[in-house]
Design brief:
With about 230 residues, the chain is α/β, with parallel strands linked by helices. The chain contains 7 helices and 10 strands. The strands form 2 sheets. It has a 6-stranded mixed beta sheet. It has a 4-stranded antiparallel beta sheet with strand order 2-1-4-5, covered by helices on one side. It is globular, with a radius of gyration of 17 Å. Bound molecules: adenosine-5'-triphosphate and magnesium ion (MG). The site of adenosine-5'-triphosphate (ATP) has 12 residues, from α1.
Length: about 230
């Protein structure tokens, strides 16, 4: 695998078919190359396709056309099992809503992503405890998501996304539901984890303050990504 380029999107297209016949074109012609340790922001109005683009980049969805390469590997013809394995081993996801498992505690939510990668249970708990301590949640390890604030849940979601030591982090409006101060705090954490661990990140956001701190910002349009 070519580790210099973490994500490559070639002429990516996405359409959705609602009634099985009528196709709604979301975007057509997305090109992107994400290098190691690069932090790239994606902005676009609601409904333009940011979540769709991140889902396709993270192998959670298939494009209608074009191709996705992760760590140099062409993914279009891979089996579901192989796609799942790339995701499990190399990709971290911060979803638009934190999507934590409500029946599991904070530390379990984070550790699961490491256990699923194949690390042993004890190591995964220890690693997750350290990660959560770094984001100020050492006193919330055993709380369940519904016993935590939105900002705390989002910090846990970031730890979960980082717990499998990903090469590629995909974050979908990670601060979307937070107030200004919490959004800066959560973004600072994301930034420090990304820079320290040399992860490449693609971050969709409406937050103009955060945009200023990206290495590069792209605007998603119907005809592709435009440099800003
Ligand atoms: N599973 C689906 N079936 C049909 N249409 C879909 C599906 N998922 C998304 N869409 C449509 O694709 C378009 C892009 O959706 P997407 O969620 O990617 O936008 P977004 O840029 O993330 O918006 P937001 O900023 O509100 O999160 C929307 O018009 C949406 O209705
Ligand atoms: Mg979205």
């Amino acid at each position: 695998m070519n580790n210099a380029l973490v994500l490559e999107l070639f002429d990516l297209k996405k359409s959705f078919s609602l009634d099985g016949r009528k196709q709604t074109k979301i975007f057509d012609g997305v090109q992107l190359t994400l290098k190691k340790s690069e932090l790239v922001g994606i902005i676009a109005p609601s409904g333009t396709g940011k979540t769709s683009l991140l889902n396709i980049s993270g192998l959670l969805d298939q494009p209608t056309g074009g191709s996705v390469r992760v760590l140099g590997q062409e993914t279009g013809k891979l089996t579901t099992e192989r796609r799942n394995s790339i995701r499990r081993n190399h990709i971290g996801f911060v979803f638009q809503s934190s999507n934590l498992l409500n029946e599991f505690s904070a530390i379990e939510n984070v550790a699961l992503s490491r256990i699923i990668k194949g690390f042993n249970f004890k190591d995964s708990l220890k690693y997750s405890r350290n990660l959560l301590s770094r984001v100020g949640l050492e006193n919330r390890l055993h709380h369940k998501p519904l016993e935590l604030s939105g900002g705390e849940q989002q910090r846990i979601a970031i730890c979960r996304a980082m717990a499998n030591d990903p090469k590629l982090l995909l974050a979908d409006e990670p601060t979307g539901n937070l107030d200004y101060e919490n959004s800066i705090l959560v973004f600072d954490l994301l930034l420090s984890l990304v820079k320290q661990k040399k992860v490449s990140a693609l971050v969709a956001t409406h937050n103009l303050e955060l945009i200023k701190r990206m290495d590069r910002v792209l605007k998603l349009t119907k005809t592709g990504l435009v440099n800003l």
